[in-house]
Structure formats: C-alpha cells, structure tokens
Amino acid sequence: MNSRPTTLGELRASGYRPCSVKDEMRRNLVARLRAGDDLFPGIVGYDESVVPQIINAVLARHNFILLGLRGQAKSRILRALPALLDDAIPVVEGSEVNDDPLYPISKFARERLSAEGDATPIAWLDRDARYIEKLATPDVTIADIIGDLDPIRAARGGHLLADELTIHFGLLPRANRGIFALNELPDLAGKIQVGLFNVMQEGDVQIKGFPVRLPLDVQLIFTANPEDYTARGKIITPLKDRIGSEVTTHYPQSVEDAVRITSQEAWTDRGVGMCIPGFVREVVERIAFAAREDRRVDRRSGVSQRMPITVMENAVSNAERRGLAANEWPAVVRISDVYAAMPAITGKLELEYEGELQGGEAIAESLIAQACADAFDAHFEEEDAGPIIEYFDTGGALKLASTATSDLLVKGFGTVTGLLPLVEASGIAGDGAEPGVMAAACELVLEALHAKRRITRTDSGSFVRLRPTSRPGGGGFSGGSSLGL
C-alpha cells in the first residue's frame, strides 16, 4: 500500500481485519499455486516428494517438522517460507511481541491502547522481521525461548516482580504473528520442550512461578536429524504429538539432480577461463552416491550434499593452479584434479569400524575409483575397451604427470591403442573437443579400467598391465609413453 495507517483510528478506517499467521500463509500459498509460481527457488529434486508434503502441511495449517540427514536443504527450505507471509503487518508501536492493534495479547499493548485510544501509534513489521530462527543446543534455557523476569526493568518502572511488565520476552513470544523455526529440535533439553508445547497448546507459561497467559499466533517449524533421536537427545512424546506433519527430506535421487545442485552451489567462477566437462561433474556426484552405499561409511550419519560441492571447488582450484603454472587456458578440470580434492572428502565421512581401520584417505580414493567406474558404465561398453586392455597386457605402459599440458597428454594417450577412438566414438567429449576435454575423458577411461581391475595404476602414476612384470613401475616403458618426466 502507498500510504499505510499510522494510528489505530486510521487502521480501523482502512477496513483492516486481523488474520492468523497460518491463515495468512495458506491464503498466500493458494494464490501462488494458482499463479504457478516457484515456491522454493533453488531447491532441486523435491518437486514430487518433499514440496507436496510441505504444501499440504501449510494448507492444513499445521506446525511441522523437517526430518532428514545433514545436507538435505532443510535450512534453505525454512528460509524460503517467509515468502508466504504478507509484505508487512500492523503492530502496536513499541510492542515486543508484535501485538495486533485490534487483538493485543500483552499488558503493555492493552494499557497503551486503553490510554491512547484511536491515537495509538501503529508500526509496520515487514516479512523478514517476522521470521526467527534458533539453533537448539543443550545450553538453551527457558529464558532464551520463553522469557524471564527482569529485576532491572521492575526497578526502573516501579513494578512488582509479579507484574507482567517486568518480563523480558524470549524468542518465541517475539515471533508472535510470524514464523518460529527451531533447528535440531532433539538437542533441546526436555524441560524446554515441555515449555514449548505448553505455549503451543495452552497459550500459557510460568516464568519463575508467575503464570502468564500468552495466546501466541505463530507458525512453528522444526528440523531434526534421525540420528539425533537416540544419539544426542529425543523429541518428547507430548511435543511430537502436537506437531501436525512430519516431512521427510532425502538426498538427490538422480545424478542429474545432484549435478544441478552442485552447479548451483559450488563456487567455480574464478574470473579466468575454466572448463568443467559434464562427465567430470558426474564423477564428482557419483562419489557421494557411492559413499552413501558403502558399508564402511556410517549410513546413519549420512553423506552431506556439501561434500560434492566442496570436492568440485577443490578440483576447480587444482585445475586453476595448473593453468596458472602452465599458462594454459581454459583450464580443464580432469579426473586427476578430483583425486587432488580428497581433503574435501575425508573430512566429511563418518566411518564405521572397518573404515576406520583402512583410513579416510584409502576410503576416499576407493570412492573416487568407484565413481569413475560408474561413470564409465554410463557412457561406454566395457567390451569396446578391449584394444586398450590388450595394449597394456602386451607390455604397453603410460606414465601421466598431473602438471602435463593438455596437448602433451593427448599425444601420450594417442600411443595407447584404441583409447582416442573410443572417446571420440562415445561423444562424451563433444564434437571437435578441445585437447583438455579429450585428455580428461581419456583419464576417465583409464581410471575406470583400473577400478575394474583390467589394468593397473602404480604408486608412481603409471598405467601398466594388470600383473606387471619385474620391470619397475616408474622406469622405462616398452612401446609406451612417459609424460612430464
């Protein structure tokens, strides 16, 4: 509106009618659904699963909980919900709990309206100020969430401690007529959860033994990790019973969705020429998919979607470093750059006992190898790689250097019988591919054949026959090529 009412009298004359926050969100959601708007920009892969459940919960005017493992966009969903609120709402000026001028709930607002009548000043609260988010931790107190008596306020105002005007309100009352989001609900102490559901259900609370009636109008949304139900705490039954809907989130269910998420979230625009082939993006995502199925990785903890995002950023950084050293642009991200990003993997894996025995780096390396094999299977037929395998079985060898230029790599790959023709026939590198992309595709083929145990990669980086002879892995190569030595 161009000119908003500034007093209670003007507000009444404008025809304003109060509306509960849940009705307000429902009304705006209905309007956006009819208009075909994107309700959750940037949320990928939830259109047929999570989003419909959230829509149903809002339409039903439910308080709800997002239940899922780490890195499943729960916080992002929370922060998109204020878009369902009105642009701004009127409140009694000076109210700590956003009192509706026509239906005040605090003693402060009631006394001010009684004293000033239609001249009571009105303030306008925008939608961003109506969203309050809190991370639940074991040290959170009733004072943080509900409020506490303030002796200093009592002394300055000449009030008794039992007077409501002495209360310093916590986050929940301050979220009145808005959204209160509580992350990691099971971490909240049981007695705090009791206070929470009492306010939700009965609208009253006792602060230091003093009963206060607070009929709050608030949309409550929680998040929780299933692991936390037993590992660090739990949701008490009376509170869980008062949560209307439980919406279960999940990791991307397709590689394509995962690629879209990482492309959207990863910082890859470095201001210099960078090229990330599609098959490299696919390998990065398949690392997470492989980790989520690996028995050495704790499935209860999950493998966050943040892992492929940070792996991609590290891989791009390694390619950028190589480009700066060789002055070769565009710098193309290769499979060797993904291996260089192992520090972004090891720190994000919670390992089972067997995995702990093997070590994080060994697990990370095996996951990358598995991802390469899976990407190979998606684009190639293994029998078509017969000439390549035969080349190494008959004594051929190839040593790669991660710092080698793309032209040099392609030249070396050309010595491996059938490698370049296989890549060209697959179309994985695109028509008229740049040398850097061809080199990256050839790396993928060799790494995949190594993962499938068809050829061997030595510690020095040489690709040789599956069962090498006594010839040193990093020495001379019969009929092969040595790059970057």
Protein described:
With 485 residues, this protein is α/β, with parallel strands linked by helices. It folds into 3 domains: 8-248, Rossmann fold; 252-379; 382-485. The protein is built from 22 helices and 17 strands. The strands form 6 sheets. Strands 4-7-10-1-11 form a 5-stranded parallel sheet. Residues 468-485 have low confidence and may be disordered.
- What is the CATH level 1 assignment of the largest domain? Alpha Beta
Please count the beta strands (DSSP E, at least 2 residues each): 17
How many structural domains can be distinguished in the coordinates? 3
N- to C-terminal separation? 72 Å
Estimate what percentage of residues fall within beta strands: 5-15%
> What's the CATH H-level homologous superfamily of the largest domain?
P-loop containing nucleotide triphosphate hydrolases
Task: Give the spatial strand order of the biggest sheet.
Answer: 4-7-10-1-11
Provide the gyration radius in Å. Answer: 30 Å
CATH topology of the largest domain: Rossmann fold
Number of DSSP helical runs: 22
Q: Helix/strand/pairing class, anyone?
A: alpha/beta
Helix content: 40-55%
* Average pLDDT reading: 90
Query: Outline, from the CA principal axes?
Result: elongated
Label the CATH architecture of the largest domain: 3-Layer(aba) Sandwich
Unreliable spans are 468-485
Largest β-sheet summary: 5 strands, parallel
